[in-house]
Specification:
By secondary structure, the protein is an alpha/beta fold. It has one domain: TIM Barrel, CATH 3.20.20.
């Protein structure tokens, strides 16, 4: 059964880190996925994770931070139990606009991950929706990134694939051997949950998570990370994510 994890970004607007980890442990979570903002105080992060019997097999890190000091993240991996880091985003003004640019970006990611791979760790990309928007020259950025970075792993964010206008089942099948983790999030029906940016608790929205869990079993994904970009109640969301995983993940 894949590890049940939680992207801590989901609770950034709520109680402190220790309280969040305690809540997750009560709901049956095994792991958390830290994001870059938490690495400013790694001691606090390690304490909160360890005190609640959790671990952090994956984490999100800023690409420029990794490029400037890869040894820092190798050390943090040892302290937190991280197996794979994922770069999660690139600002709009830094995004290429054609096949060459996106291929080169994939190559840059591949180079950045080399020190991690040499230390026995994995490194990859976490998608949003823009990677599935076709460029004027016909390029699909996600494909170009993977082509340019042959050693990259992929943390597939299913809801963002869908919001990008792509078919997640097609991408899961096509790149099954590159996908080592997945973000489990859901999309509300049109016009609903506007106060939560149109996201829904896992299993309560428009995505067919029963079928998606089945499809994910054919990939290399061993970590399923619950995420909601803007929940109005993070405890409600976390509880729903744990219940979905318990019902579908066996």
């Amino acid at each position: 059964m894949p590890v049940l994890s939680y992207q801590l970004y989901s609770s950034r607007n709520f109680a402190g880190l220790e309280q969040t980890c305690a809540m997750l442990a009560r709901f049956g979570y095994e792991a958390v996925e830290p994001f870059g903002g938490l690495f400013g105080d790694p001691d606090a992060l390690v304490r909160a994770v360890e005190a609640n019997g959790l671990h952090a097999p994956s984490a999100h890190i800023n690409l420029a931070d990794l490029e400037s000091d890869p040894a820092r993240f190798v050390d943090l991996a040892g302290r937190l139990g991280v197996r794979t880091y994922y770069a999660p985003f690139i600002q709009p003004d830094q995004r290429p606009g054609d096949a060459t640019g996106w291929h080169d970006f994939g190559a840059r990611l591949n180079r950045a991950g080399a020190p991690l791979r040499e230390a026995g760790l994995g490194f990859g990309w976490h998608n949003h929706d823009f990677e599935f928007k076709t460029e004027p020259d016909g390029t699909i950025p996600m494909q170009a990134i993977l082509d340019g970075g042959p050693d990259l792993e992929w943390e597939a964010d299913i809801a963002w694939i869908t919001r990008g206008g792509a078919d997640p089942f097609e991408w899961l099948e096509r790149h099954a051997q590159r996908i080592t983790a997945a973000h489990v999030k859901d999309i509300a029906s049109q016009g609903e949950k506007l106060d939560e940016d149109g996201w829904a608790d896992p299993g309560s929205g428009t995505l067919d998570w029963a079928a998606l869990y089945k499809a994910l079993t054919n990939t290399r994904a061993q970590i399923f990370v619950m995420e909601h970009d803007n929940p109005s109640d993070d405890a409600r969301f976390a509880k729903a994510g744990a219940a979905l995983h318990a019902g579908l993940g066996a």
